[in-house]
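REQUEST ID: PR-0412
SUBMITTED BY: lab tech R.K.
PRIORITY: routine
TASK: structure prediction, single protein chain
INPUT:
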Amino acid sequence: MSDTANPVTLKMIAQVAGVTHPTVSRALRNDSRNISEATCKRIQEIARSLGYRPDPAMSALIAHRTRVRQHGEYTKIAVLNGWGNTPMPPYMREQLKGMNARARELGYHIEVFALPEDPSGQARLSRTLAARGIRGIIVGPMPATMQDLHMEWKHFSVVSVGFSVTSPRLAFVASNHFFGIETIYNRLKSQGYNRIGFLHHVDSERRNRNLYLSSYLKCLVVEGITHDEAPPLLPGTPHAVEPMAWIKKHRFDAIICGWHESQRLLSQLITAGIQVPQDIAIAAFGISHETVTTTSGLAEDWHGLGVEAVSLLQSFILAGKRGVSHQRNAVFIDPVWKPGETVREPAAAASAGAECCQHYPVTADDSEVLAHEADALIAGGLPHPANLAL
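STATUS: complete
OUTPUT:
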């Protein structure tokens, strides 16, 4: 075993493995160029058996010198855009600004590549990127039709943004949607709203793993509210009704909804002569920090997501972490409440009501149950909320 007095060196590992010093160095960094995967694993096992421990200071110096020496394609990060001829969504444009800003700070450059929808096209793109020496990929938010991707991931360090990619299970950075809906619900309850409805288009729900809807359902269960009393409205599903008819039938005094739904709903309410927030409150999620609006709700730091995506990717590149890991990393950024004119904002909110959902933390297993129930609702058959396992 290694100790500080007699540390195991790369030269010692090379002698035992019967390979050269540079080969050991590449194998320990998971740099499989010109080395077979089997040889990499054999050298790493020998290093473990000898008790090799890298020197953190030396590793940092080598990483810095490597980054300084790299030129051209090695300093490029590929960002995959799956939106084809459709304009890139506003949130992705803001994320891209954050990526560019952080990449410049770290000495990298961002280049956007169109991601083909077909697996063969994705394989060709993989070979092109690998041939150019590009080591890092950021997978941007994908449309609902591109949840399963087929890149040759083993060549790259990879991070995705958001929840839209379901296969493979990539490391990701994302807004904390589950926490966000709890935040809105708790705030509305603390400010006197009791009949809170939920409105969100089904396509956006699917791209976000039903996390918005799952969080709302959890709040209903904790409050002991039945599905008949507060059925979520998901435009795009077969049995979705008109929002105004839904609001009138269930006598909601507050609506939690996506940003785009909030703007359409506000227009309909004004046309109907319903006053906001006097008669009903509108609390939106998915508001950009950059958006100038009077709508109350949650602001999401899309620029910050881009920054964190590059930071996480750089850590993978420097550690030689490539491909799809069995244990994936995740970075969440909490959205923040943005006061506006569509929810009452009293000078001092009652603190007790603000914790209506927070007394009941949700485990990973609970989240899976809620996600399945959200899937059932989208399919048109949600069980009674009292039967959900919390």
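NOTES: The chain has three domains: 1-52, 72-175+304-333, 177-299+336-387.
REVIEWED BY: pending
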